[in-house]
Write a structure and sequence with these properties.
The chain has 158 residues and is of the alpha+beta class. It has helices at residues 2-12, 31-50, 54-58, 78-91; strands at residues 61-68, 75-76, 97-107, 111-121, 127-140, 143-153.
Length: 158
């Protein structure tokens, strides 16, 4: 009996062939779908920004979000980001239209890092600004919210 018990103890604790104690694999994430989901969020972001809809824009951030803007110190928390955006809205000319394009996404589907580009046109359709950004999204209650972002202009430094 001792030999059988010892044999069962040693074989039941044996690691799997790949060196991991578990054999269940994590579910595969459809990154093409995640990219499409993030693009939907970016389109809604642009819509809110173009309409200067501060409430819709702020609904896309977590309370503890950090925004690292171009040419300014980091904005820590939703209140700081909102104050900055309100000031930007107040000084921006009417008719600006921004669009954002997701270039790539990385992550596990719950936390996603996005790399993207942006274009802003004036009321006549002329490009007035281009840039790039990295955003980190966290899926909360079924929707992606921005927890971190950094962006900057393609314009040369002055």
């Amino acid at each position: 009996i001792f030999i059988c018990t010892a044999f069962l103890m040693f074989t039941s604790c044996k690691p799997a062939a790949d060196g991991n104690a578990t054999t269940a694999e994590a579910p595969k994430v459809d990154m093409a779908q995640v990219k499409a989901d993030i693009q939907t969020v970016e389109t809604a972001w642009a819509t809110a920004q173009n309409a200067k809809d501060i409430n819709a824009l702020m609904a896309m951030y977590t309370d503890d979000a950090i925004s690292m803007t171009d040419g300014a110190p980091s904005l820590n928390g939703k209140a700081a980001i909102q104050a900055y955006q309100e000031a930007e809205f107040a000084k921006s000319p009417a008719g600006l239209n921004s669009t954002y394009t997701v270039q790539d996404v990385y992550g596990d589907g719950e936390t996603v890092t996005e790399v993207g580009t942006g274009v802003t046109k004036d009321a006549s359709g002329a490009v007035v600004r281009t840039g790039k950004y990295v955003a980190i999204w966290k899926k909360m209650d079924g929707k992606y919210l921005c927890i971190r972002e950094i962006y900057n202009s393609d314009a040369p430094a002055k």
